[in-house]
Amino acid sequence: MNNIQDVIILGSGCAGNTAAIYTARANLKPLVLEGHEPGGQLSITTEVENFPGFPEGIHGPQLVQNMKQQAERFGATFESGRVVRADLAKRPFTLETDHGGILQTRTLIVATGASARWLGLENEQKLIGHGVSSCATCDGFFFRGKKIMVVGGGDSAMEEANFLSRFGSEVSLVHRKDTFRASKIMYDRALANPKIKLITNTVVEDIYDVSKNEVTGVKLRNLKTNDVYLHPVDGFFVAIGHIPNTQPFASQLDLDSDGYVISHGGARTNIEGVFHAGDVQDRNYRQAITASGAGCMAAIEVERFLEADGH
Predict the structure, then answer these.
(1) Which of 18, 23, 96, 263 could form a disulfide with 85 if both were Cys (CB 3.0 to 4.6 A apart)?
(2) Residue 251 DSSP class
(3) Catalytic site residues?
(4) Is domain 122-238 in CATH 3.40.1550.10, yes or no?
(5) Which residues of the chain are modeled with pLDDT < 70?
(6) How many whole angstroms separate alpha carbon 17 and alpha carbon 295?
(7) CA 59 to chain centre
């Protein structure tokens, strides 16, 4: 068995890295497990223009790399891997990684994030950051005056379409059914927006053009007529939800019906000594800066908890 850590941080996005900076500066020697998406959502983002302190913007991977180096400077240790099983019934907590390692820790910060749901198209993955996005507030600005497409049928899709209409010359909202899961107020708002065109009973079959490393259009198929046609667009936004990465804790942490961690005040969970940070709990904002703020909160909670516990 390895030595017992004072704190282990799960996740290496903005939340996890910020928590690592704060706990390292508190001399807690945090161990960070980088997770199945090292760097989090920013690792698949190109230009970030809304993170304070970078007036010219910064590439997402560079921003999280800077945070990691900052944490390492103060004594944080980073290891690849993710937790597949956890025993949170007693302290120290016991974690098993996908590499077969067993770790023990007095406190735990769950900053495992929420992964965007994608359509599963091959070209979709190749064009992420090059016209394909899952975050309108992150990337909408880059499509000023351009044609945009949003895929989805819930409130998130309506909200993203309305937001993107501030920038794009037109926004096509594609949904596989002719009825929407969205609330009436959000649906009515999209319907009343002159820039938004609803394309129903339709699915996306392909995204072009990988050879140009940018989005130029999509292949659509009408499910009622089976007609297939090309629809030219410059930006493609997928708004079909997120999946919080909380599976190893499902029977122990309090989670809502979608799997997000339920907060018990600040960064606390229902288990003493276990804290949350970032998109694993936040279904509303999902921004780099709010994730970093949550990482700071979790780290300060860990410091106070260990101090009260005599460590």
Answers:
(1) 96
(2) T
(3) 135, 138-139
(4) no
(5) 1-2
(6) 7
(7) 16
pTM value surpassing 0.85: no
CB 307 within 8 A of CB 28: no
CATH for 5-116+242-308? 3.50.50.60
Interval 252-277: pLDDT, tens: 999 999 999 999 999 999 999 999 99
Q: How far apart are CA 144 and CA 164, in angstroms?
A: 9
Burial (CB < 10 A; 0-12, 13-18, 19+), residue 250, is: exposed
Q: What is the pLDDT of residues 196-246, one digit of tens each?
A: 999 999 999 999 999 999 999 999 999 999 999 999 999 999 999 889 999
Write the secondary structure of 137-169 as one string of H (helix), E (strand) and C (coil). Answer: HHHHHHHCCCEEEEECCCHHHHHHHHHHCCCCC
Reduce the DSSP state of residue 125 to 3 states and report it. helix
Residue type for position 12:
S
Distance (Å, whole) CA 193 – CA 117: 26
247 DSSP 8-state letter: G
Q: Domain limits of the chain?
A: 5-116+242-308, 122-238
pLDDT score for 115: 87
Q: Give the contacts of 164 (CB within 8 A, at least 6 positions apart).
A: 136, 140, 143, 148, 150, 171, 235, 237
Q: Do domains 5-116+242-308 and 122-238 have the same CATH topology?
A: yes
Give me the sign of the Cα torsion angle 181, 186, 188, 193: negative
